[in-house]
Amino acid sequence: MSTQVTPHPVTDAVREALAVTRRGVQELLPEDAWVAKLERSAATGRPLRIKLGLDPTAPDIHLGHTVVLNKMRQLQNLGHQVIFLIGDFTSMIGDPSGRNSTRPPLTREQIKANAETYYAQASLVLDPSKTEIRYNSEWSEPLGAAGLIQLAAKTTVARMMERDDFTKRFQAQTPISLHEFLYPLMQGYDSVALKSDLELGGTDQKFNLLMGRQLQQEFGQEPQCILTMPLLEGLDGVEKMSKSKNNYIGITEPANSMFAKVLSISDTLMWRWYELLSFESLEAIAKLKAEIEAGRNPKDAKVALAREITTRFHSAAAADAAQADFENRARGGIPDEMPELTLSGDMGLGALLKAAGLVPSSSEGLRKVEQGGVRVDGTVVSDKGLKLPPGTYVLQVGKRQFARVTLQSA
Questions:
Q1: Given 3.30.420.10, 3.20.20.370, 3.40.1550.10, 3.10.290.10, which CATH number is that of 340-408?
Q2: What's one GO MF term for it (predicted)?
C-alpha cells in the first residue's frame, strides 16, 4: 500500500480547517501531509480518523486535561471521526513519559472504574453521539507472545533510548524496567489497529506519537500526522495545572467555585486560557482583546470566559447563578448555598474551622484569624481564644469559603 497522500485542490474549507487545527497547538507534524489529508477528505467526503488515547490512571479531569479534548471537539465539529481510545491494556504497563522512575501498573479493576468516570467527564466536552469509544485490549491481548515478539522486532533499543526520560534515567543509573519499552510500542500499534490519520497528545507524548507513524509505515499504512498541545498553566499562572499543586479547576466542581476560580486568574493568563479553553473564534477573541487594550475593563473579558466555561460544564442558568453569587460576595454578601453541618461540644475557634472543612488544621485556622481572614456572621474575628455559644453561625474564611454551622451543647 502506498504511503503517499494524493494531492487535491486547496479550498477555503480546507484553509479554515487548517486554521482550526493550528489554533493553540505546540506542533503539527508534518503539516503538509495534514493539509493533503484535509484536501482528500474534502474532495472525497470521507472523514479523517482522529485518535486520542488516554490511560485512565486517575478518575478525575481538570481544565488542563480538556485542552486536548477541546481540540478533539473542534475537529469533531468539522465533521471528522473522533476516536476516544481508553488504554485499558497499556495502563497495565504504565506510561513512562516524563517519569524518573517506573510507574506502578494498575489493576484491571482500577482501570475499569477510572475509565467509566473518565469518559463520563470527557463527554462534557466531546459530542458523545459522534465519538467512537475503543479499548486497546481489543487488539493488544490477541497479539499473544508470538505477535508481541514480531511487533518488538520492528524497532530497536537505540530508537527507544532516543527518549529523553529513558536517556536521563540510564545516565543517572536509575533502573528502567524492560516492560517500559513496550509502552510506546503498544501505543504506536494502536494507530495501526485504528488506521489513524491524526493522533493528539500533550507535548510529553511526542515520542509515542511518532512511534505510531513509524509502525504504520512498517505495516504499509499511510502514516498518521501528530498534533501536540501545550500544557495549561494553573491558577497561579506559573506551574502547569495539577491537583498536587492545588492550582486546578476540576470540571465537576460546583458552578460557583468554578466561576470564582476563573475570575481569580491574572489578566495576562486570561488570554492564554482564552486561546486554549474557549470555543470563541480567534476573530472574536482578537476583537475583545483590542477593546480591553482600548480601555474596556479586563474584568468584562474574564467574566465572559468564566461564564463560557461554567456553562460548558454545568448550564447557562448555573452560570447566571454563579455570577450573581460572586457579585453578592464581592459586595460582602453571604451566598445562599453553602455546606451545612451540626457539631456538638466545647470547641475552640481553630478546631471549629477545621471541623467545618474550611481549613486543613486548627493551627492554620488560628493563623487565618491572625491575618484577619475569618468572619463569623459577616464580622471579622480577631480573638483566637473565642468560643461560640450554642446556636447557628455562618463561618467564612477568605472570600470564597463558607459554612453554616449549628453548635449544640455537649
A1: 3.10.290.10
A2: RNA binding
